[in-house]
């Protein structure tokens, strides 16, 4: 692939017919406009006291404040990274990775994938993976789709790339109003009885001021939650270089970054046996760890559980 010819800034990525041929063939048909059926996706950590702490849309000039707050409590989190933002602030992405946080995908320009062409949707994901690989030397295995919007063909395409899809079951709605955020997190941290994946953002100045207090609320919560990256609570590797094999393309040639101080998950193995296992797992469309998380969440019988045709409004707590 060589040096990537990236989109210029926050613009929708153009499609590549070779990529579409590799991972976009034989997809199921879309059914209706229900973009919030997360029944087959991760919405909660499987352990009853596990808190998957996630931040979307960065990196940005506000990200250091989040990193500082996490570092002060020795907490690792998952950052769902927008490609155009990584292009603009590569040093911040490197810092997050070097400090042991999980870096995951959030598309190139934050477009709703079911509402653009398949060619463009695939390119949004691939360019996102390329810029992360170019910047920190590894390829994320996890993705969160923008706005939580997904449908059957998009899900299958992402599974064809070997990606684990993560939604959430605790939406702080920090993009809209910062006032109730700490209280919302504190209530769950004090009274929750099942696993959490929370949604916050590290891009807007007005939503950053609550971050230290929200982290403190989790740490000091009466329910005894432990905050961690989503890959850790699922027991999955955070990165997977098999992405490029599935795409049928060489990875970008950027130099690898230095190793993180405390990686949230072990580096992916590269043996032939591991690659074969990865290919088999991809064919099943979800990993065993993800299925385990789903089963555990279903057993809880709470609003955090996966269930058939689970709606966006039902899990925005």
Main sheet summary: 6 strands, parallel
Rg for CA atoms = 18 Å
Q: Structural class, from helix and strand content?
A: alpha/beta
CATH topology, anyone? TIM Barrel
- In DSSP terms, counting alpha (H) and pi (I) runs of 4 or more, how many helices? 14
Query: What is the CATH homology-level superfamily?
Result: Glycoside hydrolase/deacetylase
Provide the β-strand percentage band: 5-15%
Shape assignment: globular
Give me the CATH architecture, please: Alpha-Beta Barrel
Q: What is the N-to-C order of secondary-structure elements (H for helix, E for strand)?
A: HEHEHHEHEHEEHEHHEHHHHH
Give the averaged pLDDT, no decimals.
84
Distance from first to last alpha carbon: 43 Å
Kindly state the percentage of residues in helix.
25-40%
Task: Give your account of this protein's structure.
The strands form two sheets. Strands 1, 2, 3, 6, 7 and 8 form a six-stranded parallel β-sheet that branches. The protein has a two-stranded parallel ribbon with strand order 4-5. It has helices at 17-23, 63-72, 83-88, 90-98, 118-136, 152-160, 181-191, 205-208, 211-219, 230-234, 242-247, 272-283, 288-300, 312-315, and strands at 50-56, 78-81, 102-105, 142-143, 164-165, 170-171, 196-201, 226-228. β6 (170-171), α7 and β7 form a beta-alpha-beta unit. The chain has one domain: Alpha-Beta Barrel (TIM Barrel), CATH 3.20.20.370. It is built from 14 helices and eight strands. It is an alpha/beta fold.
């Amino acid at each position: 692939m060589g040096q990537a010819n990236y989109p210029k800034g926050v613009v929708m990525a153009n499609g590549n017919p070779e990529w579409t041929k590799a991972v976009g063939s034989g997809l199921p048909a879309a059914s209706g406009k229900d973009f919030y059926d997360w029944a087959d996706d991760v919405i909660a950590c499987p352990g009853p006291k596990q808190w998957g702490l996630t931040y979307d849309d960065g990196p940005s000039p506000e990200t250091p404040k989040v990193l500082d707050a996490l570092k002060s409590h020795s907490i690792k989190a998952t950052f769902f990274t927008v490609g155009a933002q990584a292009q603009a602030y590569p040093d911040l992405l490197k810092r997050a990775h070097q400090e042991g946080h999980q870096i995951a995908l959030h598309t190139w320009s934050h477009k709703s994938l079911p509402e653009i062409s398949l060619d463009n949707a695939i390119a949004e994901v691939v360019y996102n993976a390329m810029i992360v690989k170019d910047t920190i030397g590894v390829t994320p295995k996890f993705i969160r789709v923008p706005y939580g919007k997904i449908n059957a063909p998009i899900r299958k395409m992402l599974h064809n790339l070997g990606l684990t899809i993560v939604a959430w079951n605790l939406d702080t709605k920090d993009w809209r109003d910062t006032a109730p955020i700490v209280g919302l997190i504190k209530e769950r941290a004090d009274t929750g009885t099942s696993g959490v994946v929370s949604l916050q953002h590290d891009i807007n100045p007005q939503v950053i001021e609550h971050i230290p207090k929200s982290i403190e609320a989790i740490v000091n919560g009466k329910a005894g939650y432990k905050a961690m990256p989503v890959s850790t609570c699922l027991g999955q590797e955070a990165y997977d270089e098999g992405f490029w094999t599935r795409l049928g393309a060489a990875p970008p040639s950027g130099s690898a970054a230095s190793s993180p101080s405390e990686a949230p998950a072990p580096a992916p193995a590269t043996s032939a046996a591991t690659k074969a296992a990865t290919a088999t797992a991809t064919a099943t469309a979800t990993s065993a760890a993800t299925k385990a998380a789903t089963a555990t969440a279903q057993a809880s019988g709470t609003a955090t559980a996966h269930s058939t045709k689970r709606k966006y409004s039902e899990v925005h707590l």
